[in-house]
Amino acid sequence: MLNKLVLSYDMRAASIFSIPKDLPDHERQKRRHMLASLGIAWLVMMQVMMFAFPGYLRGDYIGTESLAMLDTAIIIMNWLSFALTMPVLLYCAWPIWQGVFKKSPSHSMRVNMDWPVALGILTAFIPSVIATVSQQGEVYFESVAMFVAFLLTARYLEFCAEQSARYSSIGAPATLEQARIIMTAKADKIAFAFVIIQILLAIISGLVWYLFIDKAHALPVLVALFVMSCPCAMSMAVPTASSAARAIFLNDHSFTPEQQEFVLNLTRKTANQNLYGSLAWHILMAPLAMFGLVAPWVAAITMLVSSLAVAWNSWRLYKKFHNQGFIISLDWTAGKAVQG
Q1: Domain residue ranges in the chain
Q2: If we measure between CA atoms, which residue out of 157, 178, 189 comes closest to residue 264?
Q3: Helices (DSSP H) in 167-255: which residue ranges?
Q4: Helix, strand, coil % in the chain, rounded to nearest 5
Q5: How far is CA 132 from the centre of its chain?
């Protein structure tokens, strides 16, 4: 279970995703609720992917009688996929819809990180429903289920890292929280600009495909770009890095001010690697999606890969100071952590 995931061999030590001892009950309830939604989304995703398999087999090479049987199976599987996807949209993805209609402190609607996610889901789901009812065209229920499941995975890791970084802060220097606030502000600005640009690219690319290239392929291109516009990995960049630093400080209370500053510098470096690395990954994948080379389900997988890469990179920071459950010695004069 992700709830039990720790990134060290000593289960008693603080780690990036560990549950703080003084975590309030309402925060623990949020964690359990997110885990339940995540589990349902993954179960539905795997089942819907199985239902989508007959559609992958359809082709002109199949005989007339076999093709008719296959089409009947596809129609049945599409309706089953539709029925299973509904709980994912109405329950698992409920925080996304709440985020879309969330008002700013000035009580005005504003574009936030949930907008591209909602657009991607609706752009794939509504045509799929129409295709299911009319029994014509392709459906993307598996892409919707994958998108929601992978998104919830990234957000659960981000949520656990934020809880771990903000609670049980005794032993962590105050400068860590100050650095986290500054890094978060920068990451939010970059992620917001990325989302706006990505949404515009998705709309323009979809129109170009529809008007000039291939109408049938315009929707998959649009959905793939909307899926890739979700800044999940970028939103994890700072929480996971600051959580790693917090775990380092909580596992060893003997740091001098110079040593604390050294860890903070590594934390800033890791957060920047997470942020700009995930941004570069999106920039690399966007042209491929614009040229129609990335299917919506592949776009969902790339989103998950970038999020897991961010979590792994932050774990590397934590691992530099931890070896088989023991805090390792540091060669401060050399200016680097030594793993012995």
Answers
A1: 23-100+113-337
A2: 178
A3: 174-208, 215-228, 232-251
A4: 75, 5, 25
A5: 28
CB-CB contact of 49 with 146 (8 Å)? yes
Is residue 290 a contact partner of residue 261, using CB atoms and an 8 Å limit? no
Distance CA 286, CA 123 (A): 18
Report, as an integer, the average pLDDT of 134-152: 90
Taking Cα atoms as reference points, which of 219, 9, 44, 71 lies closest to residue 141?
Answer: 44
* Distance (Å, whole) CA 153 – CA 232: 10
Max Cα distance, the chain (Å): 78
Distance CA 328, CA 251 (A): 11
| DSSP-based three-state secondary structure for 127 | helix
For residue 168, give the nearest of 266, 238, 251, 239 by alpha carbon.
251
Q: Work out the burial of residue 272: count CB atoms within 10 Å of its CB; fewer than 13 is exposed, 13-18 middle, 19 or more buried.
A: middle
pLDDT tens, 274-321? Answer: 999 999 999 999 999 999 999 888 988 998 899 999 999 999 988 887
What is the model's pTM? Answer: 0.79
Q: Are 139 and 151 within 8 A, CB to CB?
A: no
The closest alpha carbon to 224, from 269, 278, 283, 290, belongs to 290
